[in-house]
């Protein structure tokens, strides 16, 4: 069952964050993930949540998502994101596939 990582990111150091952004995509793909959405064009529908940037990633399984997050490749750049932004990440389990 697919899982999704939702990241809410408020960038504090754009130059440093660009270094992270240049490297992150390859680590996601290496572990079977893909970006479904990312960017700062965000429209609030309800409530007062106003993130500066959102990234929505999909992985085939929770195991692959955790393998990516804890991987040597991602661990090597995760600190850049953490230094260059205030961020929150959550993992959401998708729904089981429905029969046609």
Strand-helix topology:
Elements: E1 3-11, H1 14-30, E2 34-39, E3 53-59, H2 62-69, H3 72-84, E4 85-93
Antiparallel strand pairs: 1-3, 1-4, 2-3
Outline the structure in words.
The protein is of the alpha+beta class and 100 residues long. The protein is 38% helix and 31% strand. It contains 3 helices and 4 strands, in the order βαββααβ. A 4-stranded antiparallel β-sheet has the order 2-3-1-4. The longest helix is centred in the first third of the chain and has 17 residues, at 14-30. The mean pLDDT is 95.
Short key terms for the protein model shown above:
100 residues; single chain; four-stranded antiparallel sheet; 31% strand; alpha+beta
Q: What does this entry show, briefly?
A:
The protein is of the alpha+beta class.
Number of helices: 3
Quote the distance from N terminus to C terminus.
Answer: 16 Å
Number of strands: 4
- Describe the global form: flat
| Average pLDDT level | 95
In helices, the fraction of residues equals 25-40%
Taken as a percent bin, the fraction of beta residues is: 25-35%
Flag low-confidence runs. Answer: none
Q: How would you classify the helix and strand content by structural class? A: alpha+beta
Order of helices and strands: EHEEHHE
Major sheet: size, sense and barrel closure? 4 strands, antiparallel
Q: What gyration radius follows from the Cα positions, in whole Å?
A: 14 Å
The strand line-up of the biggest sheet is: 2-3-1-4
């Amino acid at each position: 069952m697919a899982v999704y990582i939702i990241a809410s990111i408020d960038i504090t150091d754009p130059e440093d964050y660009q270094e992270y952004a240049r490297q992150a995509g390859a680590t996601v793909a290496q572990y079977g993930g893909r970006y479904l959405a990312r960017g700062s064009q965000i429209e609030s529908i309800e409530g007062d949540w106003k993130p500066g940037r959102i990234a929505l990633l999909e992985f085939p399984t929770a195991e692959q998502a955790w393998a990516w997050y804890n991987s040597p490749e991602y661990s090597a750049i995760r600190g850049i994101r953490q230094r260059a932004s205030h961020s929150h990440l959550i993992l959401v389990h998708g729904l089981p596939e429905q029969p046609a």
